[in-house]
Protein backbone atom coordinates (compact mmCIF):
# COMPACT_ATOMS: atom_id res chain seq x y z
CA UNK A 1 0.00 0.00 0.00
CA UNK A 2 1.43 3.37 -1.00
CA UNK A 3 1.95 6.50 1.09
CA UNK A 4 -0.77 8.19 -0.98
CA UNK A 5 -3.24 5.56 0.14
CA UNK A 6 -2.17 5.67 3.77
CA UNK A 7 -1.78 9.42 4.26
CA UNK A 8 -3.21 11.15 1.20
CA UNK A 9 -2.90 14.88 0.60
CA UNK A 10 -3.55 17.75 2.97
CA UNK A 11 -6.25 19.24 0.75
CA UNK A 12 -8.43 16.20 1.39
CA UNK A 13 -8.01 16.73 5.14
CA UNK A 14 -9.03 20.38 4.78
CA UNK A 15 -12.15 19.25 2.91
CA UNK A 16 -12.82 16.79 5.74
CA UNK A 17 -12.81 19.60 8.28
CA UNK A 18 -14.80 22.10 6.21
CA UNK A 19 -17.43 19.70 4.86
CA UNK A 20 -17.46 17.15 7.69
CA UNK A 21 -16.06 18.07 11.08
CA UNK A 22 -17.35 21.65 11.43
CA UNK A 23 -20.90 21.11 10.05
CA UNK A 24 -21.23 18.07 12.33
CA UNK A 25 -19.58 19.38 15.49
CA UNK A 26 -21.44 22.67 15.55
CA UNK A 27 -24.62 20.94 16.79
CA UNK A 28 -22.88 19.22 19.68
CA UNK A 29 -21.29 22.46 20.78
CA UNK A 30 -24.61 24.30 20.51
CA UNK A 31 -26.10 21.56 22.69
CA UNK A 32 -23.29 22.06 25.21
CA UNK A 33 -23.69 25.87 25.30
CA UNK A 34 -27.42 26.38 25.06
CA UNK A 35 -28.63 22.99 26.26
CA UNK A 36 -30.45 24.07 29.39
CA UNK A 37 -33.51 25.76 27.96
CA UNK A 38 -34.66 23.47 25.14
CA UNK A 39 -37.75 21.37 25.50
CA UNK A 40 -36.90 17.91 24.19
CA UNK A 41 -40.45 17.25 23.10
CA UNK A 42 -40.86 20.52 21.16
CA UNK A 43 -42.50 20.30 17.73
CA UNK A 44 -39.45 21.72 15.96
CA UNK A 45 -37.25 18.96 17.34
CA UNK A 46 -39.79 16.33 16.29
CA UNK A 47 -39.59 17.63 12.72
CA UNK A 48 -35.80 17.84 12.83
CA UNK A 49 -35.55 14.27 14.05
CA UNK A 50 -37.88 13.06 11.29
CA UNK A 51 -35.84 14.85 8.59
CA UNK A 52 -32.57 13.51 10.04
CA UNK A 53 -33.96 9.96 10.01
CA UNK A 54 -35.15 10.37 6.41
CA UNK A 55 -31.74 11.69 5.32
CA UNK A 56 -30.07 8.68 6.87
CA UNK A 57 -32.62 6.48 5.08
CA UNK A 58 -31.66 8.19 1.82
CA UNK A 59 -28.00 7.39 2.44
CA UNK A 60 -28.85 3.73 3.06
CA UNK A 61 -30.80 3.71 -0.21
CA UNK A 62 -27.98 5.45 -2.08
CA UNK A 63 -25.40 2.83 -1.08
CA UNK A 64 -27.73 0.02 -2.20
CA UNK A 65 -29.09 1.67 -5.37
CA UNK A 66 -25.87 3.35 -6.59
CA UNK A 67 -23.28 1.13 -4.92
CA UNK A 68 -19.65 2.22 -4.50
CA UNK A 69 -16.59 0.13 -5.40
CA UNK A 70 -16.76 -3.62 -5.05
CA UNK A 71 -20.47 -3.58 -4.15
CA UNK A 72 -21.22 -2.52 -7.75
CA UNK A 73 -20.12 -6.01 -8.87
CA UNK A 74 -23.18 -7.50 -7.16
CA UNK A 75 -26.29 -7.57 -9.44
CA UNK A 76 -29.11 -5.13 -8.53
CA UNK A 77 -31.61 -7.85 -7.66
CA UNK A 78 -29.20 -9.56 -5.32
CA UNK A 79 -28.44 -6.35 -3.39
CA UNK A 80 -32.15 -5.55 -2.98
CA UNK A 81 -32.85 -9.19 -2.10
CA UNK A 82 -30.14 -9.16 0.57
CA UNK A 83 -31.63 -6.07 2.24
CA UNK A 84 -35.14 -7.55 2.03
CA UNK A 85 -33.99 -10.91 3.46
CA UNK A 86 -32.15 -9.13 6.28
CA UNK A 87 -35.25 -7.07 7.04
CA UNK A 88 -37.50 -10.15 7.25
CA UNK A 89 -35.09 -11.92 9.62
CA UNK A 90 -34.63 -8.71 11.66
CA UNK A 91 -38.41 -8.52 12.19
CA UNK A 92 -38.81 -12.26 12.85
CA UNK A 93 -35.92 -12.26 15.33
CA UNK A 94 -37.64 -9.62 17.48
CA UNK A 95 -35.65 -6.73 16.03
CA UNK A 96 -32.21 -8.29 16.41
CA UNK A 97 -29.75 -6.07 14.52
CA UNK A 98 -27.18 -8.84 14.55
CA UNK A 99 -29.53 -11.47 13.07
CA UNK A 100 -30.65 -9.06 10.34
CA UNK A 101 -27.11 -8.13 9.31
CA UNK A 102 -25.95 -11.77 9.24
CA UNK A 103 -29.01 -12.83 7.19
CA UNK A 104 -28.48 -10.06 4.62
CA UNK A 105 -24.80 -10.90 4.27
CA UNK A 106 -25.43 -14.65 3.94
CA UNK A 107 -28.12 -14.01 1.31
CA UNK A 108 -25.74 -11.92 -0.78
CA UNK A 109 -22.77 -14.29 -0.45
CA UNK A 110 -24.84 -17.40 -1.25
CA UNK A 111 -26.43 -15.55 -4.18
CA UNK A 112 -23.05 -14.55 -5.58
CA UNK A 113 -21.79 -18.11 -5.20
CA UNK A 114 -24.97 -19.46 -6.87
CA UNK A 115 -24.62 -17.09 -9.81
CA UNK A 116 -20.96 -18.06 -10.11
CA UNK B 1 -19.34 -8.17 34.49
CA UNK B 2 -21.53 -6.18 36.89
CA UNK B 3 -20.74 -2.63 37.95
CA UNK B 4 -19.89 -2.21 41.66
CA UNK B 5 -22.70 -0.95 43.94
CA UNK B 6 -23.15 2.81 44.11
CA UNK B 7 -21.56 3.08 47.58
CA UNK B 8 -18.56 0.88 46.75
CA UNK B 9 -15.04 2.33 47.38
CA UNK B 10 -14.36 1.28 43.76
CA UNK B 11 -15.96 4.55 42.70
CA UNK B 12 -13.71 6.79 44.80
CA UNK B 13 -11.10 7.25 42.07
CA UNK B 14 -12.08 8.92 38.80
CA UNK B 15 -9.55 6.71 36.99
CA UNK B 16 -11.28 3.61 38.31
CA UNK B 17 -14.57 5.04 37.02
CA UNK B 18 -12.89 5.64 33.63
CA UNK B 19 -11.71 2.01 33.63
CA UNK B 20 -15.21 0.75 34.47
CA UNK B 21 -16.56 2.80 31.57
CA UNK B 22 -13.91 1.34 29.28
CA UNK B 23 -14.77 -2.20 30.36
CA UNK B 24 -18.46 -1.60 29.82
CA UNK B 25 -17.99 -1.70 26.04
CA UNK B 26 -17.87 -5.49 26.41
CA UNK B 27 -21.39 -5.42 27.88
CA UNK B 28 -23.32 -4.37 24.82
CA UNK B 29 -24.15 -5.84 21.42
CA UNK B 30 -23.95 -2.28 20.06
CA UNK B 31 -20.14 -2.50 20.26
CA UNK B 32 -20.32 -5.32 17.72
CA UNK B 33 -22.71 -3.33 15.54
CA UNK B 34 -20.35 -0.33 15.68
CA UNK B 35 -17.43 -2.58 14.78
CA UNK B 36 -19.30 -3.88 11.72
CA UNK B 37 -20.38 -0.36 10.72
CA UNK B 38 -16.86 1.06 10.97
CA UNK B 39 -15.42 -1.94 9.17
CA UNK B 40 -17.79 -0.91 6.38
CA UNK B 41 -16.80 2.77 6.62
CA UNK B 42 -13.11 1.83 6.32
CA UNK B 43 -13.89 -0.24 3.22
CA UNK B 44 -16.10 2.53 1.81
CA UNK B 45 -13.32 5.08 2.29
CA UNK B 46 -10.91 2.79 0.46
CA UNK B 47 -13.24 2.16 -2.48
CA UNK B 48 -14.09 5.88 -2.74
CA UNK B 49 -10.34 6.69 -2.89
CA UNK B 50 -9.82 8.37 0.45
CA UNK B 51 -6.63 7.72 2.44
CA UNK B 52 -6.53 5.65 5.60
CA UNK B 53 -5.43 8.70 7.61
CA UNK B 54 -8.43 10.58 6.25
CA UNK B 55 -10.78 7.78 7.32
CA UNK B 56 -9.26 7.66 10.83
CA UNK B 57 -9.44 11.45 11.20
CA UNK B 58 -13.08 11.39 10.17
CA UNK B 59 -13.84 8.81 12.87
CA UNK B 60 -11.87 10.71 15.52
CA UNK B 61 -13.16 14.22 14.77
CA UNK B 62 -16.62 13.63 13.29
CA UNK B 63 -17.53 10.58 15.39
CA UNK B 64 -20.96 10.10 13.83
CA UNK B 65 -21.39 7.17 11.47
CA UNK B 66 -24.21 8.67 9.36
CA UNK B 67 -22.33 11.96 8.86
CA UNK B 68 -19.17 10.08 7.88
CA UNK B 69 -21.02 7.95 5.34
CA UNK B 70 -22.86 10.97 3.93
CA UNK B 71 -19.54 12.81 3.64
CA UNK B 72 -17.78 9.92 1.90
CA UNK B 73 -20.63 9.08 -0.48
CA UNK B 74 -21.43 12.67 -1.46
CA UNK B 75 -17.80 13.74 -1.96
CA UNK B 76 -17.13 10.43 -3.71
CA UNK B 77 -20.00 10.95 -6.15
CA UNK B 78 -18.82 14.43 -7.11
CA UNK B 79 -20.83 16.76 -4.87
CA UNK B 80 -19.31 20.15 -4.03
CA UNK B 81 -17.94 20.91 -0.57
CA UNK B 82 -20.98 23.11 0.14
CA UNK B 83 -23.45 20.40 -0.89
CA UNK B 84 -21.68 17.84 1.30
CA UNK B 85 -21.50 20.27 4.22
CA UNK B 86 -25.25 20.93 4.01
CA UNK B 87 -26.09 17.22 3.90
CA UNK B 88 -23.75 16.53 6.84
CA UNK B 89 -25.04 19.37 8.97
CA UNK B 90 -28.67 18.40 8.44
CA UNK B 91 -27.88 14.82 9.44
CA UNK B 92 -26.06 16.14 12.52
CA UNK B 93 -28.93 18.27 13.86
CA UNK B 94 -30.14 15.21 15.75
CA UNK B 95 -26.94 15.43 17.85
CA UNK B 96 -28.24 18.65 19.37
CA UNK B 97 -31.24 17.14 21.21
CA UNK B 98 -29.07 14.14 22.14
CA UNK B 99 -26.43 16.30 23.80
CA UNK B 100 -29.13 18.42 25.44
CA UNK B 101 -30.79 15.34 26.93
CA UNK B 102 -27.68 13.39 27.91
CA UNK B 103 -25.56 16.02 29.66
CA UNK B 104 -27.99 16.64 32.55
CA UNK B 105 -27.47 12.96 33.48
CA UNK B 106 -23.83 13.71 34.40
CA UNK B 107 -24.01 17.29 35.57
CA UNK B 108 -23.63 18.18 39.26
CA UNK B 109 -24.17 21.69 40.70
CA UNK B 110 -20.39 22.27 40.60
CA UNK B 111 -19.73 20.88 37.11
CA UNK B 112 -18.01 23.32 34.77
CA UNK B 113 -18.96 23.43 31.14
CA UNK B 114 -15.47 22.53 29.90
CA UNK B 115 -15.53 19.31 31.95
CA UNK B 116 -18.42 18.19 29.72
CA UNK B 117 -16.61 18.92 26.45
CA UNK B 118 -15.46 15.34 25.77
CA UNK B 119 -18.77 13.89 26.85
CA UNK B 120 -20.49 16.22 24.36
CA UNK B 121 -18.04 15.28 21.60
CA UNK B 122 -18.49 11.55 22.28
CA UNK B 123 -22.27 11.78 22.20
CA UNK B 124 -23.74 9.88 19.26
CA UNK B 125 -26.50 7.30 18.98
CA UNK B 126 -24.64 4.45 20.67
CA UNK B 127 -23.28 6.45 23.60
CA UNK B 128 -26.66 8.12 24.05
CA UNK B 129 -28.42 4.76 24.31
CA UNK B 130 -25.78 3.33 26.66
CA UNK B 131 -25.78 6.38 28.92
CA UNK B 132 -29.45 5.92 29.61
CA UNK B 133 -28.74 2.29 30.46
CA UNK B 134 -25.52 2.54 32.49
CA UNK B 135 -25.54 5.95 34.19
CA UNK B 136 -28.24 5.18 36.77
CA UNK B 137 -25.77 2.52 38.06
CA UNK B 138 -22.90 5.04 38.40
CA UNK B 139 -22.54 7.60 41.25
CA UNK B 140 -23.30 11.05 39.85
CA UNK B 141 -19.90 12.59 40.65
CA UNK B 142 -18.13 9.82 38.66
CA UNK B 143 -20.37 9.81 35.61
CA UNK B 144 -18.24 12.12 33.44
CA UNK B 145 -15.18 9.91 34.01
CA UNK B 146 -17.26 6.81 33.28
CA UNK B 147 -18.64 8.27 30.04
CA UNK B 148 -15.18 9.38 28.93
CA UNK B 149 -13.96 5.80 29.48
CA UNK B 150 -16.91 4.31 27.62
CA UNK B 151 -16.46 6.74 24.71
CA UNK B 152 -12.69 6.22 24.60
CA UNK B 153 -13.29 2.47 24.35
CA UNK B 154 -15.87 2.82 21.57
CA UNK B 155 -13.67 5.21 19.55
CA UNK B 156 -10.73 2.79 19.86
CA UNK B 157 -12.87 -0.10 18.63
CA UNK B 158 -14.00 1.97 15.65
CA UNK B 159 -10.49 3.15 14.71
CA UNK B 160 -9.36 -0.49 14.75
CA UNK B 161 -12.36 -1.51 12.65
CA UNK B 162 -11.66 1.31 10.13
CA UNK B 163 -8.08 0.12 9.68
CA UNK B 164 -9.06 -3.53 9.27
CA UNK B 165 -11.87 -2.62 6.84
CA UNK B 166 -9.55 -0.43 4.77
CA UNK B 167 -6.96 -3.17 4.38
CA UNK B 168 -9.58 -5.84 3.75
CA UNK B 169 -11.13 -3.76 0.96
CA UNK B 170 -7.68 -3.42 -0.59
CA UNK B 171 -6.86 -7.10 -0.42
CA UNK B 172 -10.03 -9.15 -0.48
CA UNK B 173 -11.72 -10.73 -3.48
CA UNK B 174 -14.43 -8.59 -5.04
CA UNK B 175 -17.24 -10.62 -3.47
CA UNK B 176 -15.91 -10.37 0.08
CA UNK B 177 -15.15 -6.68 -0.45
CA UNK B 178 -18.78 -6.22 -1.49
CA UNK B 179 -19.89 -8.08 1.65
CA UNK B 180 -18.00 -5.63 3.85
CA UNK B 181 -19.48 -2.62 2.03
CA UNK B 182 -22.95 -4.11 2.49
CA UNK B 183 -22.42 -4.08 6.29
CA UNK B 184 -22.96 -0.32 6.39
CA UNK B 185 -26.47 -0.06 4.92
CA UNK B 186 -27.61 -3.20 6.76
CA UNK B 187 -26.39 -2.15 10.20
CA UNK B 188 -27.72 1.40 9.78
CA UNK B 189 -31.09 0.24 8.50
CA UNK B 190 -31.64 -2.17 11.38
CA UNK B 191 -30.25 0.02 14.15
CA UNK B 192 -32.42 2.92 12.96
CA UNK B 193 -35.44 0.64 12.68
CA UNK B 194 -34.77 -0.61 16.21
CA UNK B 195 -34.68 2.94 17.54
CA UNK B 196 -37.94 3.85 15.76
CA UNK B 197 -40.51 3.87 18.51
CA UNK B 198 -43.09 6.22 17.04
CA UNK B 199 -45.06 5.97 13.82
CA UNK B 200 -43.38 9.16 12.56
CA UNK B 201 -39.95 7.48 12.85
CA UNK B 202 -41.09 4.48 10.83
CA UNK B 203 -42.68 6.71 8.15
CA UNK B 204 -39.51 8.82 7.92
CA UNK B 205 -37.33 5.73 7.52
CA UNK B 206 -39.55 3.98 4.97
CA UNK B 207 -40.38 7.05 2.86
CA UNK B 208 -36.77 8.22 3.05
CA UNK B 209 -35.67 4.98 1.41
CA UNK B 210 -38.45 4.93 -1.19
CA UNK B 211 -38.18 8.61 -2.19
CA UNK B 212 -34.39 8.61 -2.64
CA UNK B 213 -34.40 6.82 -6.04
CA UNK B 214 -37.02 9.34 -7.28
CA UNK B 215 -35.00 12.30 -6.03
CA UNK B 216 -31.84 10.84 -7.58
CA UNK B 217 -33.54 10.94 -11.01
CA UNK B 218 -33.67 14.74 -10.75
CA UNK B 219 -29.87 14.78 -10.69
CA UNK B 220 -29.66 18.03 -8.76
CA UNK B 221 -26.74 17.06 -6.55
CA UNK B 222 -29.00 17.60 -3.56
CA UNK B 223 -30.84 14.27 -3.93
CA UNK B 224 -30.43 13.18 -0.33
CA UNK B 225 -31.46 16.56 1.03
CA UNK B 226 -34.56 16.72 -1.15
CA UNK B 227 -35.78 13.20 -0.38
CA UNK B 228 -34.89 13.68 3.29
CA UNK B 229 -36.75 16.96 3.76
CA UNK B 230 -39.82 15.75 1.84
CA UNK B 231 -40.01 12.36 3.58
CA UNK B 232 -39.23 13.87 6.99
CA UNK B 233 -41.88 16.56 6.59
CA UNK B 234 -44.51 14.01 5.57
CA UNK B 235 -43.53 11.93 8.62
CA UNK B 236 -43.89 15.03 10.80
CA UNK B 237 -47.31 15.62 9.21
CA UNK B 238 -48.36 12.10 10.22
CA UNK B 239 -47.16 12.80 13.77
CA UNK B 240 -49.03 16.13 13.84
CA UNK B 241 -52.23 14.60 12.46
CA UNK B 242 -52.18 11.85 15.11
CA UNK B 243 -51.58 14.43 17.86
CA UNK B 244 -54.51 16.54 16.67
CA UNK B 245 -56.85 13.56 16.53
CA UNK B 246 -55.74 12.24 19.92
Give a quick precis of the structure:
Chain A has helices at residues 3-6, 10-34, 43-65, 76-92, 97-115. Chain A is mainly alpha-helical and 116 residues long. Classes of the chains: A mainly alpha (116), B mainly alpha (246).
Description:
The complex is a heterodimer of chains A (116) and B (246). Helices cover 76% and strands 0% of the residues of chain A. Chain A is mainly α and 116 residues long. The two termini of chain A are 29 Å apart. With 246 residues, chain B is an all-alpha fold. Chain B contains 12 helices and no strands. The longest helix of chain B is centred in the middle third of the chain and has 29 residues, at 143-171. At the A-B interface, helix 1, helix 2, helix 3, helix 4 and helix 5 of A face helix 2, helix 3, helix 4, helix 5 and helix 6 of B.
Kindly list the characteristics that best describe this protein.
heterodimer, A: 116 residues, mainly alpha, 5 helices, 0% strand, B: 246 residues, 12 helices, globular
Rg calc of chain B: 20 Å
Give the largest interface pair and sizes: A-B, 78 and 111 residues
**Straight-line N-to-C gap of chain B:** 44 Å
H/E order of the elements of chain A?
A: HHHHH
Give me the count of strands of chain B. 0
Element string of chain B (H = helix, E = strand)? HHHHHHHHHHHH
**What structural category characterises the helix and strand content of chain A?**
mainly alpha
Shape of chain A: flat
Task: Please tell me the overall pLDDT of chain B.
Answer: 89
Strand content of chain A: under 5%
Please give the count of helices of chain B: 12
Uncertain residue segments of chain B: none
Overall helicity of chain B: over 70%
Structural class of chain B: mainly alpha
Largest sheet of chain B: none
Largest sheet of chain A: none
Amino acid sequence: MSAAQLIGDWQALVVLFVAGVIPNQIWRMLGLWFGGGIDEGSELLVWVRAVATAILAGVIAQIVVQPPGALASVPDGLRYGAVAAGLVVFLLARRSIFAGVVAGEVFMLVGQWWLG
Amino acid sequence: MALPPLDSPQWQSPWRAFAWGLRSITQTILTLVLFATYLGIGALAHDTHFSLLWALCSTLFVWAGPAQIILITTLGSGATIIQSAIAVTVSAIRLFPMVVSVLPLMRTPTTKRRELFFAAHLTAVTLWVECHRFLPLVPRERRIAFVNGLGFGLVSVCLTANTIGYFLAANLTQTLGAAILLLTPLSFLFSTARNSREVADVVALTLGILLYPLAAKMNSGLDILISGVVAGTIAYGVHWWREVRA
